Amino acid sequence: MSTAMQFTLIGFGIDPDYQIDIINELDFANAIYGITQVAGLHNNSKAFLFRDVGRAVHAPAHITEKVVELFRSKSEFTFLASIQQKTSTSGVIFSIHESEHRIYERVIDPPQMDLTLGSGVWLGQHSHKHGLFKGTIQDVKFIFAPNGYITQCPNLNRSCPTCSDFLSLVQGIMDLQELLAKMTLKLNYAESRLTQLESCRCERTCSANGVVYRDKELWVEPENCRNCGCMNGVVECRRIFCPPANCSEDSLSVHVEGTCCKKCRPKCTYMAQTLSEGQRLLTKRCTECKNGMMVRVTENCPELNCTLKEQILPENRCCNICKGYDFCAEGLICGENSECKNRNTRAECECKSGFASIHGDSTYCEDIDECVTQMHYCQANTACVNLLGSHRCDCLPGFIRVDDYSCTEHDECASGQSSCDDNAICTNTIRGHLCSCKPGYVGNGSICTAFCEEGCRSGGTCVSPNTCVCPSGFTGLHCETDIDECAEVLIQCHIHSRCVNLPGWYHCECRNGFHDNGSYLIDGSSCIDIDECATQTHTCWNDSVCVNLPGGFDCMCTSGPACSGDCLYEEGLKHNGQKWNHSLDHCSLCSCKDGRTFCMRRECHCADPETDLFCCPECDSRKSSQCLHQSGHILYRSRDSWIYSCQQCRCLEGKVDCWPLACPVLACKYSALVEGECCPHCVTDPCLADNIANDIRQTCQDPAGITRLSSATWPMPGSPCTTCKCKVTATTHILPDTDTHTQNAYTHRST
Prior knowledge:
This protein is mainly beta.
């Protein structure tokens, strides 16, 4: 049966015993060879990328058994998955079918449940080579319960809600009741606080010219001709409004000392000149405008300390003065935003920079809003801010200042102030920057990690695009090849031992006729001879004498007719020099020589057409005798062997026989299993050990001084991705005045 349907999964109200998360099960069982974990359609579960390459996403036996049992015991099921398929492709998402290859596993220790005969469970493919799906798969689940589709629509309006719906509704009501009670308490407290605040009256005061004013209090500043007020702690002033004078034809509007607004005063017209009240004119004699008429006045002019050429006659006066006279010193009144300026023959008020005269009169001036009137110098990427008598050019967000009037874009990428990862491309934008991982890297731009399409096996690390750094003992583009230290003569075992290759490692195994003395030294130097004579494991017969040899023994005839050199074999007697076929293995030939029995396999001659292929499977070139690797893309000849998932596998006439690897015995106290390897190593640090037995009666202190129980775990403060663990063992030492010593340690591991 093959199924290919697209759904979105949301777990909701289903008994976990009746549902199977295929991806989690395969990932936990390390059965996801050939696919790569990637960012999925959402971040709530793992997603994997299936490419058009050789792969074998095949369920182990216990998963297959569970799936088949549920299929047999249930009459209804629902298949759910979130997929993103590559365009213009086809493939199988999930498949259950009979196996196309005969693969059997012989597991000795520990026992495991075999695959159901004739069945196989595949994800993203129909078999090893057929129906390969191309794209991303996420949230693959089987739900063996009625209405399993409801898990996709938890908010669906159903006429018959499930028990889970009802329980969720009850829990929701209880949560709302608890929230309502908490909100009621908070509202009551807020009301009591408001009642207290209503009885208080707080106001912000203002200070101006050494005087403190209350909020909303008004006052007049006659010297500046303005009305001021205190508004929430801020002094706000406006110029006193002066209505139009509307003077008659025989009068002029002029400033009168002590007043802010112009007043109407009589005017005089004489010799085409118009004079206001009090102004004088020198013709043949000095005259002054009084009540609209020019009246002769007598004025005694002071003596001047300058020559006649240096003297000038000021406007509306009758006496000369010296050049450079300070008219402003006579006390001309100008407003706060204007200042007195000396001219050649008079003094006048002039508006300060940034201010303009009111109705053409510079005595009192008002601020010019350069931003509104477009009289500013702010360039692009700035915002004009009006100030009293001036303005300011502020940089827009994302820009930095060049000078007082212009700003340029802040290039975080060029300045090295971006948040991008070293393996990301920084793109500057108007109000910031964007980070995107370089080709061959994945992440959000701030964090980019190298992406290896085929992944790194055997504990390897992807350090750059499609480049793996392999741990010790492995090599290959994807760390898929074990280094055979024995074949490459990288190590030297003792003469009494032989080198045995293991995935990522090796060990020196005692040769036949030798055994380890119990120290289990790594170079095999702890292998000592077995004395077959003393242990009565020899085969010497009659009067022959057993003589122990390094790695074996010999049977020596001393004297007498009974010392014939015959051999005892299977409760029978074989004569010296006799040869016969092995009773249990017709491919082996045995012989008797001087009391010793020797059995060895017959020599194979593949060029001989009469060669027994059963005894010489390496001569079998038939395709039916070949075996396919568990990954589905390596073909082996009969009698070839390989290592897969810490099992030794061998091809025998088209059948794959696998058994667990035999790990060497370790004499050390602490050992650890390195990722990608099958057998543990000796370690001296108990924090790194996997076989440590925690003593729950003991404790240790973490760096913060907190006492932790043995085997307890906790996150490291300030580093949420690091987990610490307390490891304490009780060990006995023979020391003076002490019996038992406790070895304390704590370890941390980053995740």
